Amino acid sequence: MRKPRDFDAELKALEEKARELKTRKVQQLGELVIATGADQLSTDELAGALVAITETRDTSKREAWAKRGVMFFESRSRRTALESQRNLRSAPAQPGSPQSPASGTGSA
Length: 108
Hints:
Layout: H1 7-36, H2 43-55, H3 59-89
């Protein structure tokens, strides 16, 4: 005989997964707002811009925005890759050591 399924436990697990996905989505949207510099806008400006975008039916505008978004993400990924390569090539300096750029002498 088959073991009966625990529907309550399965439903609870699915609800938890849905909560985690929603939380991750909200976090990623916040990160996107910050990464694009849109966090410098007021809440009203940002909301108005998003409403205008969602109401736009002009496919050429939407395609242009999509291309611009792709270029934004590609430039970020290239920049991140270049920075990580630069960090890997440089000699690892210990914080506080004479080689550390943070400990250099400068006007303060």
